[in-house]
Structures are given as C-alpha cells and as structure tokens.
Amino acid sequence: MYRIFLDIHTHKKGIPGSIYNKPPEGAIPLQSFSWGIHPWDLDQGWEKELDKIEMQMKLENLLAIGECGFDLIKGPVPSLQKEAFLAQTKLAEQYGLPVILHCVKGFHLIQEYFKKNEPTPAIIWHGYNQKTEIAKSLISYPIYFSFGKALLDGDSNAQKWLKICPLERIFFETDDAEIEIFSIYEQASLILQLPIDNLAKQVSQNWNSISKRKIT
C-alpha cells in the first residue's frame, strides 16, 4: 500500500508530508516549507523580503518559492507584480526549486511570462479552478496544476480539468481549508477512477521529477 499523500500547499503548520506556506512575519519552520512574496504584500518592501529568502535558499527544507504571482483584484499595479514575479522565478531557477503560483484574473500575465522567459522553473498553479481552455493553452510550458477543495464541488472547473489533465502534471493541496488532504485524494480517485494508492504514488513521482529536495 502506498500511503504518502503529499500536500503541495497548506497554511496549516506541522503536518507531515506537506509544504507549509511560510507567512512573511513567521519564523523559519523546521518542516518542509515554501517562501515567497504574495502579490498582496508587494507594497511592503518586497525587495528586502526577497533578500531574506535568498539568504536561506540553501536550506534543504525550503522546497519552493511561493506563493507568488498575480492578483488583479487585490494586488498592486501589474507592472510591479510582473517585476516581483520575474525576480522570484529567477531565484527559483537558480536553485532548482519550483514556484507555487497564485493567479487571480492574471492569466494573460502568466501567459506573457512563459512566452518571454526561457528557461523557467516548474510552476505549480495552486488551487486550480479555471476553465479547461486556460490550462490547455499552457500545457506546452513547464506548468503543473494543484487541486484543492474545489474538487469537492460538483461540476467545478477543477473537476473538469482534472478529468483530462495529464497525470504527470497534477498535485493536490489543502491550502487554508479545514479539510484533510486524504479527502482531496479520495475525491480525485473517484473522479479519475484510479486507485488512491496509485494516485498518491503518481503525485510523489511528479514531485521528484521537478525537485531534488524531499517533502518530509
């Protein structure tokens, strides 16, 4: 039985097998974690925060940069978001880490990023719940899709895309929801008609294909 259910993005601390999303004010955790500059926080001296991140890039439990990206509802002007995102992806590429992407109403900006930048680190679009056409248009790039609580909603965009998404591009997450990661895998297993242990093994293989650092 394969019983490692990786949680690629969570705001809950201390859960084995998960990547904890470190908040700006939080201390560096002992567990596996990601660290990035959320678009909501870019007006607060993001360059200094990036310097802090860069100083810790050799930590083996720092597994990803993020969440970072684009938010055209709550974020600052797009030019600032683009500048900060590019800086973070370059840092991730330098150290061989993936990027956890936050993207709200910013599809055209991630599309623009991919068209202009090569090479680029693996980018995991967290909490994916967009139309399948959006995902299909990006599949030629090194992008992955992390599915969360939206999978539990009947007929969601997340369900529709998971059904046809290449298995080697999928991850799962709890984000800030009060749910267990097993419930997400269980739902995905039903949607895909794939044994849950096979699914868990696939996700672990997906992680190992984009990172040399292990989720503990």
TrEMBL record:
Keywords: Hydrolase. This is TatD family hydrolase. GO terms for molecular function: hydrolase activity. Pfam families: TatD_DNase (PF01026). It comes from Shivajiella indica. It comes from the Bacteria.
